[in-house]
Amino acid sequence: MKARIKWVENVMFIGESGSGHAVIMDGAPEAGGRNLGVRPMEMLLIGLGGCTAFDVVHILRKGRQEVRDCEVLLEAERAESDPKVFTRIHVHFVVKGKGLAEAAVERAIRLSAEKYCSASAMLGKTATITHDYQIVESD
């Protein structure tokens, strides 16, 4: 896996992935930015959410659960002094589907958190990561 980061101006950078996608990273105006892109630490949190959402949907579908939607809401706290690592992350899943088995949803979240999600494994070295979920019946 490769990535390339290119400085644009002030505190704005463009990140390019090895798969050919790009994202703008920028700082807040008080930090010299124009607020035109996501902050790097926000990208880490988004990466965690994407990684675990991918796992949960994949595990549920593989288990023949009729999952129709999955939303992951994350809240994080960071250390007050440098390096300002994440110290606490809460991951809330809203899983929608038809007749979803609660045990299957719990299992999918647990497997992602404990076995499959690389982002969880890395961020879990500095942060306490907690999870909860809501199942919404959907046609």
Structural features, described:
It is a single chain. The termini are far apart. This protein folds into two domains: 1-38, N-terminal domain of TfIIb, CATH 2.20.25; 40-137, 2-Layer Sandwich (GMP Synthetase, Chain A, domain 3). The protein has helices at residues 40-62, 102-116, 118-123; strands at 3-9, 12-17, 22-25, 66-78, 86-98, 128-137. The strands form two sheets. A three-stranded antiparallel sheet has the order 1-2-3, with no helix packed on it. A three-stranded mixed sheet has the order 4-5-6, covered by helices on one side. With 139 residues, the chain is an alpha+beta fold. It is elongated.
Overall geometry comes to elongated
Number of helices: 3
Q: Span from first to last CA?
A: 39 Å
The assembly state of the depicted protein chains is single chain
Average pLDDT, to the nearest integer?
97
Radius of gyration: 17 Å
What is the CATH top level name of the largest domain?
A: Alpha Beta
What letter string, H or E per element, gives the SSE order? EEEHEEHHE
How many structurally independent domains?
2
Question: What is the annotated CATH architecture of the largest domain?
Answer: 2-Layer Sandwich
Number of strands: 6
Uncertain regions spanning at least 5 consecutive residues: none
How much of the residues is beta strand, in percent? 35-45%
DSSP helix fraction: 25-40%
The CATH superfamily of the largest domain is K homology (KH) domain
Structural class determined from secondary elements: alpha+beta
CATH fold field value of the largest domain? GMP Synthetase, Chain A, domain 3
